[in-house]
Automatic annotation (TrEMBL):
Transmembrane segments: 12-35, 126-148, 160-181, 288-305
GO MF entries: transmembrane transporter activity
Function, as annotated: Part of the binding-protein-dependent transport system for glutamine; probably responsible for the translocation of the substrate across the membrane.
Designated name of the protein: Putative glutamine transport system permease protein GlnP
Source organism: Aquipseudomonas ullengensis
GO biological process per UniProt: amino acid transport
Taxonomic placement: Bacteria, Pseudomonadati, Pseudomonadota, Gammaproteobacteria, Pseudomonadales
Keywords per UniProt: Amino-acid transport, Cell membrane, Membrane, Transmembrane, Transmembrane helix, Transport
Length: 320
């Protein structure tokens, strides 16, 4: 064990040096274009203090102002004698005790922490990925089995679907779903985006499952049938569990690609992570900082997926 560590440390050192060189090249490139890094502008696009204005409900006066920690509790009395109590941030208070107020006047604001556009974009990317992946897996399973069916119609239709989807760009498919199918059926942009991604993923998953099932020797099915299982039971209980172990790595890779492909739904005005990043750049002018953060957020999603798939693959490998 000691010899192994001694033999590996130079390679780890080389890895570190390569990363340092890449970071140095990046710093030099930004220096050549006179880019000024403004990381202080980035946190507000994750979380920020939202302000909600508090208005007077009618004409009246400020009856009393009482301290309540960092806030102020303001008591208003209108012309009918009705009391209105507002709690606002003390530094935002616009009136003093005894001042007259009109209906709709802003007395002050309340502040609370709110998710910024990058977090909302991350959430949109997550739920679109989960829905598209779930439906894509079901579609792919059905497609893969149809590709292996003895029924010529099922084979032909599934083959046509796979070839059409794999032979055309995902961006074009999203446009077709939104502007043609979505308009005819009155679908929302979110539904059209999820449907396009699910069908795109289903075509690739179908081919992965077909290849996995065909990799299982025919003797497995024959042994299951000889034990009295039907064709469906043999596929469900014998063939598919073994095929799943073999296709897990390409399936994980396909779902990781799906997470990145969700960036394309921004073309139909869905504000996912990439579109949120573009909008943040237009207001912050921090191009590199925002794109680095967007890339890091995609990594936050995909790295755990890779780790889960690797652990599941090792665990299933031990059960052979």
């Amino acid at each position: 064990m000691a010899k192994q560590k001694k033999a590996l440390w130079p390679w780890h050192l080389l890895t570190g040096l390569i990363l340092v060189v890449i970071a140095g090249c990046l710093w030099c490139s930004t220096s050549l274009i006179s880019y000024e890094w403004r990381w202080n502008r980035v946190p507000q696009y994750f979380v920020y203090h939202a302000e909600v204005a508090q208005h007077a409900s009618g004409y009246g006066r400020v009856e009393a102002i009482a301290d309540d920690g960092a806030d102020a509790r303001v008591t208003l009395i209108d012309e009918t004698g009705t009391e209105q109590i507002l709690r606002v941030a003390r530094d935002s208070l616009q009136f003093s005790q005894g001042d007259d107020v009109a209906e709709g006047d802003v007395i002050g604001v309340t502040r609370h922490w709110a998710a910024g556009p990058l977090l909302w974009g991350l959430w949109t990317t997550l739920w679109i990925s989960v829905l598209s992946g779930a439906f894509g897996l079901l579609i792919g399973l059905a497609t893969g089995l149809c590709r292996l069916s003895k029924n010529p119609t099922l084979r032909d239709l599934s083959t046509l679907y796979v070839e059409l989807v794999r032979g055309t760009p995902l961006l074009v498919q999203i446009f077709i779903f939104y502007f043609f199918i979505g308009t005819v059926l009155n679908l929302s942009r979110e539904f059209a985006g999820v449907a396009a991604l699910a069908l795109f993923t289903g075509a690739y998953v179908g081919e992965i499952i077909r290849a996995g099932v065909q990799s299982i020797t025919r003797g497995q099915d024959e042994a299951a049938r000889s034990l009295g299982l039907s064709a469906a039971q043999s596929m469900r209980h014998v063939i598919l569990p073994q095929a799943f172990k073999r296709v897990l790595p390409p399936l994980a890779g396909q779902f990781i690609s799906l997470v990145k492909d969700t960036s394309l739904v921004s073309v139909i005005a869905i504000t996912e992570l990439t579109k949120s990043g573009r909008e943040a750049i237009t207001t912050s002018f921090s191009t590199f900082e925002i794109w680095f953060c967007v890339a890091a957020l995609y990594l936050v999603i995909n790295l755990p997926l890779s780790q889960i798939a690797s652990r599941l693959e090792r665990r299933l490998g031990k059960s052979d």
